[in-house]
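Journal club prep — side note

Before the paper discussion, L.F. wants everyone to see what a predicted structure for a comparable chain looks like in token form. Sequence:
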Amino acid sequence: MDPTVVEITKSAVGIVTTVLSWAAVITIFMLFRNFIIAGISRALIMVFESGNDKTREVLIRFLVDKNSTVPEIYENLKKNFEGGGGQ
């Protein structure tokens, strides 16, 4: 076989393989992205349904403006883990 044909064939196979690989990576990313979004949405719904009034208020404020509630959430988590959850 002519060396030029072999080089062109190797290049074509490499390009096709690269395109298929990237298509597979993008497809997998899209699939996992949907599962992650569904999981986070369900967790927020569970917190809202089973939480008390204070928890609901903090969740709503968090969804509206994350920066205003992060210190409060951090303090509550710290208090829970130091006080009763660290076994």
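L.F.'s comment for the group: The two ends are 72 Å apart (CA to CA). Keep this in mind when we get to the figures.
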